[in-house]
TrEMBL record:
Signal peptide residue numbers: none
Keyword terms of this UniProt record: Cytoplasm, GTP-binding, Ligase, Magnesium, Metal-binding, Nucleotide-binding, Purine biosynthesis
Complexes and interactors: Homodimer.
EC number: 6.3.4.4
Name of the molecule in the record: Adenylosuccinate synthetase
Listed cofactors: Mg(2+)
Gene that produces this protein: purA
Listed pathway(s): Purine metabolism; AMP biosynthesis via de novo pathway; AMP from IMP: step 1/2
Keyword Secreted: no
Catalytic residue list: 13 (proton acceptor), 41 (proton donor), 139
Family annotation (InterPro entries): Adenylosuccin_syn_GTP-bd, Adenylosuccin_syn_Lys_AS, Adenylosuccinate_synth_dom1, Adenylosuccinate_synth_dom2, Adenylosuccinate_synth_dom3, Adenylosuccinate_synthetase, P-loop_NTPase
Function in brief: Plays an important role in the de novo pathway of purine nucleotide biosynthesis. Catalyzes the first committed step in the biosynthesis of AMP from IMP.
Catalytic function, reaction form: IMP + L-aspartate + GTP = N(6)-(1,2-dicarboxyethyl)-AMP + GDP + phosphate + 2 H(+)
Organism: Streptomyces thermospinosisporus
Source organism, top-level taxon: Bacteria
């Protein structure tokens, strides 16, 4: 059985946790391939609600092995507290595997993230402040600390000292902050080594062997397509590749092994942090979407910006990820609107544009061109099949599918595990 990728088709927070969890029972490995504890998945199992930041949501499915791939950045203190929080609630986390090549978010990376944002003032990115960007910057600059470095004190010492030589200059001279003592950082990091040791493994080998043995491997993206460092709304993006290609580089599994790429698509649009968002609403409708959809960040507690569905973005996500399917989430949130606007194109400097403009300047000027679709007022949360949906809800889904360029294979009609309509099986 080949590998599947599940990723956000918009700006993140599309409800991936629910989708991965739905597949969890039939999946052998759930692998995160990028990002860190900037992500936030809420998974509802029975009457229990779990908020996960770093751990793959497969951690909640007993038969499944959760994996943190080499492309992820790991804050050990967050990881350990997430694990002990789950253990206290009776969840067995012993199967977790962490790549020895994953990079570590050090305390100084978190400091640099926060002070840089403060320094940028009005021009800030609105990061989650978790040290994600600075850790990836260190990785690319070849001064990063990897999980495997925790097991060689002399290498760890050299690397931390080298990194801090430069960072302390910046912190003290540019940002007017106190220098960070290398020995304290080293001591803290060494303190995590033994606690993490049982989980550290050659995940590249394990995943490729699993695929050879016909196991089902699910790659779970954090954030979303429009937050991708290469394909997103740069510079208002995260510092990794949530798009499908990231699943290969972030795990060491080749593209020929991937058979399905599933985009999670919310029935409307949200974004956190700064950056362009053509269908953003500043009126009562936006407020209503936020309230009904519970659009508040799992990680930061920030209110999400809300707007209508944007088909231009969905088409773009289909293209850059090679999507084979969509999982449409939160359709129930739209219940009660008489008419639902859907953005079908943009108007940029008086011209109609059907596709996402590659120019940042143009995208900043894009105004949504809306088509009005008739709404529905019936409760849809008990719908088990597509035909159980009211006619107008069916037509809304069909219209989105046609505009977005890939089949909608599942629909979320409520937050619970079983509140999903499966149209085509993902496996
Ligand atoms: P960073 O990932 O903390 O560097 O933040 C960069 C941008 O990505 C900011 O706009 C964040 O709000 C956004 N972001 C990061 N993680 C998520 C996520 O899981 N969902 C939605 N937005 C996110």
């Amino acid at each position: 059985m080949p590998a599947l990728v599940l990723l956000g088709a918009q700006w993140g927070d599309e409800g991936k946790g629910k989708a991965t969890d739905l597949l969890g029972g039939s999946v052998d490995y759930v692998v995160r391939y990028q990002g860190g504890n900037n992500a936030g998945h809420t998974v509802v199992v029975g009457d229990q609600k779990y908020a996960l930041h770093l751990l793959p949501s497969g951690i909640l499915s007993p038969g499944c092995t959760p994996v943190i791939g080499n492309g992820v950045v790991v804050d050990p203190s967050v990881l350990l507290s997430e694990l002990s929080g789950l253990n206290e609630r009776g969840v067995d986390t012993s199967k977790l595997l962490i790549s020895g090549n994953a990079h570590i978010i050090t305390p100084y990376n978190v400091t640099v993230d926060k002070v840089t944002e403060r320094f940028l003032g009005k021009r800030k990115i609105g990061t989650t402040g978790r040290g994600i960007g600075p850790t990836y910057a260190d990785k690319i600059n070849r001064v990063g600390i990897r999980v495997q470095d925790l097991y060689d004190e002399s290498i760890l010492t050299q690397k931390v000292e080298a990194a801090l030589d430069v960072k302390n200059q910046i912190l003290t001279k540019l940002y007017n902050r106190r220098a960070i003592a290398a020995d304290q950082v080293i001591e803290e990091l060494l303190g995590y080594a033994e606690k993490l040791r049982p989980y550290v493994a050659d995940t590249v080998l394990i995943l490729n062997q699993a695929l050879e043995q016909d196991k089902v491997v699910l790659f779970e993206g954090g954030q979303g397509t429009l937050l991708d460092i290469d394909h997103g709304t740069y510079p208002f993006v995260t510092s990794s590749n949530p798009t499908a290609g990231g699943a290969c580089t972030g795990t060491g599994v080749g593209p020929t092994k991937i058979s399905r790429v599933i985009g999670i698509l919310k029935a409307y649009t949200t974004r956190v942090g700064a950056g362009p968002f053509p269908t953003e609403l500043f009126d009562e409708d936006g407020e209503a979407l936020r309230r009904i959809g519970g659009e508040r960040g799992v990680t930061t507690g920030r209110d999400r910006r809300c707007g209508w569905f944007d088909a231009v973005i969905a088409r773009y996500a289909t293209r850059v990820n090679g999507l084979t399917d969509f999982f449409l989430t939160k359709l129930d949130v739209l219940t009660g609107w008489e008419q639902i606007p859907v953005c079908v194109a943009y108007e940029i400097d008086g011209k109609r544009v059907e596709e996402l403009p590659y120019s940042q300047t143009d995208f900043h000027h894009a105004k949504p061109v809306y088509e009005m679709l008739p709404g529905w007022s019936e409760d849809i949360s008990k719908a088990k099949s597509f035909s159980d949906l009211p006619k107008n809800a069916q037509n809304y889904v069909k219209a989105l599918e046609e505009m977005s360029g890939a089949p909608i294979s599942a629909i979320g009609v409520g937050p619970g595990r079983d509140e999903t309509i499966e149209i085509n099986s993902f496996l």
